[in-house]
Known about the structure:
Elements: H1 2-10, E1 17-21, H2 25-36, E2 40-44, H3 53-59, E3 62-63, H4 66-72, E4 75-78, E5 102-104, H5 110-114, H6 118-121, H7 127-135, E6 140-141, H8 148-153, E7 165-170, H9 173-185, E8 189-192, H10 215-225, H11 231-250
Parallel strand pairs: 1-2, 1-4, 2-3, 4-5, 5-6, 7-8
Antiparallel strand pairs: 6-7
Amino acid sequence: MRQRIAAAQTLNFPTMNIGIIGAGHIGSALAVRLTSLGHSVKIANSRGPETLTDVAQKTGATPVTAREAAQYGEIIVVTIPLKNIPDLPKDLFEGVAADVPVIDTSNYYPMLRDGQMPELETGDLTESEWVQQHLGRPVVKVFNNIYADHLENKGQAAGTPGRIALPVAGDEPAAKQKVMALVEELGFDAVDDGSLHESWRQQPGTPSYGADLPADKLREHFASLGTKRTEAQHAEYLANHAKAEQQMADQGIQLK
C-alpha cells in the first residue's frame, strides 16, 4: 500500500474526495484502492451506514448515506445493481455541481438479477444510456468489465508490459478525462471507448468483457467492431451473455 501511495505522489496525482454509492464487490474494491492512494472516500449502500461497519474496517472508507456520498464527491461512483437504479433518491444530486463526474459501473444481468428490461433487449439504448436517463445526469462508463478482485489487486505501474486496459465511455470530454486520469492512477491504461452510445463495446457478451486486454489489443478490438452496433452484433452478444449467465446459474453463482 505504501508503495502505491508513493507512486501516486511521484506522478503528482491530486488527492480527492470520492463518493461511492454501492458497497458490493466493485464498490468495496474501489474503496480499498482509492484509500490506499490517499483519497478520502465515503461509501453508501441501500440499508444505511450502520450496516457498513465491516466494509469500513476493510476499506478505510467512511460509511454515509447515498445523499451524503453524492454531496461529498469530487468524483461520484454509482455501483449498484442495474434494477435498483430507479430506486435511488430523486434528489440524489441536488446541489452537486454539474461538472462533477458520475461514474456508472453497471451491467445488465436479466436472468440472474435484473429481470427483462425491454429497452436494453432491443439495443436502442446502451446500459449506461439507460442509467443516465434515470439519474438525470451525464455518466461515464468504466469499471464494469473487470473482475473486482482484479480491480483491487492487478493494477500496475504505467509502462508495465501487459498492463490491463479499461475502456472509458462518455459524452462529456472534461468528465471523461478526469475519470481516465483516475483509471491510470489505479494502475490501468485508460482507453477511450467513445460516446456513451458506443459503450456497448464493453458490455457483457462482448469479447472485451472480463478479458483484461492490454491497451493495444483493446483498441484493435474496438476498431474491428466499428462504432455503430449492428443487429447481428447485438444478437450475437445477447446470446453470448445468455450462455454465460446460464453457466453461472448452473454453478450456483448468485449476483447481488
